[in-house]
Amino acid sequence: MGPRCLAAAVVVLLLLCAALAAALIYMQLSKEEEVCLTPGCIQTASVILSSMNSSVDPCDDFYEYACGEWIKGHPIPDDAPSVSNFENLGQDLEFALKELLEAKDPNGTVIDKNSAIYKAKQFYRLCLNESEIMDEWRKVFDEVVKMFGGWPSLGQHDPSMRIEKLYAIMVSKFKVDSLFKATVQPDDKNSERHVLLLDQPALNLFARDFYIAADNDERLAYMTLIRDVLVLLKADAQTATRDAAEVIEFETALANITMAEEQRHDIAELYTKMTLGQMTRELPYFNWKMFFNEVFADIKMKNGTDITFDDSTEVVVYGVEFLRRLDKLLPQFHSRKVTNYLSWCWFFKTMLRDLPDPFSLTIFKFYKSLNLLNVQKVRWHGCVTRINSLMPMATSSIYVKNHFDHEAKEQVEEMISLIMEAFTDLLESEDWLTSETKAFAKQKVQTMKQKIGYPDYLNDSGAVDQEYNSFIVYPGDYYRTKFKFYEMYQKDVLERIVQPVDRERWVAGAALVNAFYSPNTNEIIFPAGILQPVFYSKHFPSSMNFGGIGVVIGHEITHGFDDRGRLYDNMGNIRQWWDNITITKFEEKAKCIEDQYSNYMLKQIGLTINGKSTKGENIADNGGLKQAYKAWKRYEKSHPKPPRLPGVNLTHDQLFFLNYAQIWCGTMNDKEAVRKLRTSEHSPGPIRVKGPLSNSNDFAQAFSCPQGSPMNPYKKCRVW
Ligand SMILES: [Zn+2]
Q1: Residue 6's pLDDT is what?
Q2: For residue 449, which phi and psi values (nearest 5 degrees)?
Q3: Where are the domains of the chain?
Q4: Which of the four, 21, 193, 450, 684, has the lowest number of CB atoms within 10 Å?
Q5: Which has more pLDDT, 642 or 700?
Q6: Can you give 206-256 as a three-state secondary structure string?
Q7: Per the database record, which ranges form the Peptidase M13 C-terminal domain (predicted)?
Q8: Residue 152 carries which DSSP code?
């Protein structure tokens, strides 16, 4: 073959190559243009489009861009202080449970009165029956108050009843945590075993700030509530006014000695292990031995012998300073005042909310004055919530049977392993961790356990029935039934003191819209309730699932490495596995996030975020977004390209971020906004969008945001 021939052949070959390339590009383009027209895609596209305000520049205000129309179309309902995509999911779940609890058994079914579902349904029915409750409640109330040695505001008080004994009954039989929290949980420094735990109490008015700020609306409304309720309970008006003021006086004193949440982040610093002997010496006013022996008075070992405590019994205390102050505070108050406070707390937490009018009207007035509701919530909501928290595995078992798509579990498993890989890769590329710390971190993520959907034993109704075997329903008697349920629930918690930690146990039920990281067991948990739109759907393009449940997965994994989670090793023990150089670097990076968020203002009320108390959640949001995006890009490479959504002119990278933002679409009234800023560990929705996205180079690239634009600032913060 001569040179001319060769040249001609080369030209022909080049032409062929060019044609082939053009065809390939064309095929690729036309593939990209492929539009999905299934009902699922059309529905998804319509939800996305009707939520966003595309007239706004996404680089200016991505929250408004993603949620502008959603907000216009979702006014706050009269029976709530806020509305959001996230809260709406919870509402849907409540509706689903309502239907299941109300469902009639098919004709001819033999009813097993020992089954957990039967008990749950009966409880729910008793809870709805207001006239029956009105006829019966006072009898049970009087019996309990008698067991307490009387309620001084109502004219009876046995001064020989020790506070230790009274409070022990409230803890063991009614789950009350009003003076301090006392429970059984895995030991943070020995995660194989359970230990007695003491912590500061949960106050009735949302947060300590509400007691400490001078004469605020919340405190005044609360005082009116206590007085009105005491009058309804037949206290004389003068006593009711005086005692309501005294209850607030004691509760305010208690609030004053608690630590602010933002100072309680370092569990290692908070943790003190003491023996009962030591407590008796150092905290002499309150008889701790008497208290614990009384709490466990009805709890037995497996072989039937009593569980007793002596000087050598170990107790873990979170914030021993609180107990020191409590030990000085208690003798300053007459036992009548303390008893009034405790009796009020018991009534408020266990009875008041479920009592029909005139009680429900009184509590409604309280919530209304705080702007929490404008109309009374329909009764069944409370009944569903109560049974879902007291018999979580019974409600979960019917929920997953009817509403859980098993395909979800497989897909989420695949996503988790991709996101864990992404986390490990990102870890590899970090230069601020020393190689030892990096190796430990890798081991921690690789040994992290995962629980998805629900525990397998829920498929076996016999096992669920067994779990609630000791729960007794008293026909016609709601409160007697409810109190039995409380007692049995607490018994299950307290009995663990003599049992090793069961790592297979689920710390939460499946009928919940939430996800968790448990530091004691180094595991991530995704209940069935969160595996639904907007977080996840098998009809979503995978980009949206990664932007939804994918970010949640990354968020929970990152909790293992946030300011609190990083203190625990891979077995769930607090131990210093970080070297000091890395700790200093971590703290610098975390401080960047803290300062950044402290400068964010929630425009609606003109207040800034508390960067300190939201630090852990913000670190998790930022890390979760980054890992999920990296995992999505990896997934995209090994899977066929998903078709476009009809009418949605966005790439899949853009859809990833859009779905992340749309999860947080919502509004709240001003009072609620203030309350959230003061009490929540999470930043409010608009900030959960602004923070992580403006720290993300991936986001800036996907939306071509110019450097220095509001959503792509020059200064960015990140830990992971
Ligand atoms: Zn979180």
Answers
A1: 52
A2: -85, 160
A3: 159-356
A4: 21
A5: 700
A6: CCCHHHHCCCCHHHHHHHHHHHHHHHHCCCCHHHHHHHHHHHHHHHHHHHH
A7: 514-719
A8: G
**pLDDT tens, position by position, 328-344:** 999 999 999 999 999 99
Alpha carbon of 556 to ligand 1 centroid (Å): 6
443 within 8 A of 424, measured Cβ to Cβ: no
Pairing state between β 271-275 and 181-187 = unpaired
Distance CA 662, CA 219 (A): 36
Q: Over the chain, what is the mean pLDDT?
A: 93
CA of 318 to the centre of ligand 1 (A): 21
Question: Do 310 and 123 form a contact (C-beta atoms < 8 A)?
Answer: no
| Distance between Cα 266 and ligand 1 center (Å) | 16
- Using DSSP, state whether 357 is helix, strand or coil: coil
Task: For 337-363, give one letter per residue: b (16+ CB within 10 A) or e.
Answer: bbbbbbbbbbbbbbbbebbeeebbebb
Say what percent of the chain tops pLDDT 70.
95
pLDDT reported for residue 111: 83
Whether pLDDT at 18 is above 60: no
What SS3 state is found at 664? coil
595 is catalytic: no
Does the pLDDT of residue 600 top 60, yes or no? yes
HSE, CB side, 13 Å, CA atoms: give it for residue 693: 34
Q: What is the 294 CA–ligand 1 centroid distance (Å)? A: 36
What value does the CA radius of gyration of the chain take, rounded to a whole number of Å?
A: 29
Q: For residue 717, what pLDDT is reported?
A: 97
What gap in Å lies between CA 338 and CA 319, rounded to an integer? 22
pLDDT of residue 30: 47
Token duo for residue 379: 């009764």
CA dist 645 → 29, 472, 544 (Å):
15, 52, 11
What is the reported pLDDT for 261? 84
Q: Is 314 a catalytic residue?
A: no
d(CA 608, CA 603): 9
| pLDDT of 215 strictly over 90 | no
395 Cα: distance to centroid of ligand 1 (angstroms): 24
Pairing of strands 449-453, 523-527: parallel
Distance from the CA of 363 to the center of ligand 1, in angstroms? 31
What pLDDT is attached to residue 2? Answer: 46
Ligand 1 centroid to residue 458 C-alpha, Å: 26
Q: How far is the CA of 667 from the centre of ligand 1 (A)?
A: 20
Compute, in angstroms, the gap from residue 634 CA to the centroid of ligand 1.
Answer: 25
Does pLDDT of 706 surpass 60?
A: yes
What integer pLDDT is reported at residue 110 of this predicted model?
Answer: 82
Tokens matching residue 647: 């009418």
Q: Which one is catalytic: 556, 562, 563, 617? A: 556
Dist CA 65 CA 55 (whole Å):
7
The answer to whether 703 and 655 have CB atoms below 8 angstroms apart is no
8 A C-beta contact, residue 312 and residue 143: no
| Catalytic choice (64, 465, 477, 621) | 621
Residues 508 and 514 sit within 8 Å (Cβ to Cβ): yes
Lookup: tokens for 161? 């009843």
- Name the CATH superfamily housing domain 159-356: Neutral endopeptidase , domain2 (1.10.1380.10)
Kindly tell me if the per-residue pLDDT of 115 is higher than 70: yes
Give percent helix, percent strand, percent coil of the chain, each to the nearest 5.
Answer: 60, 10, 35
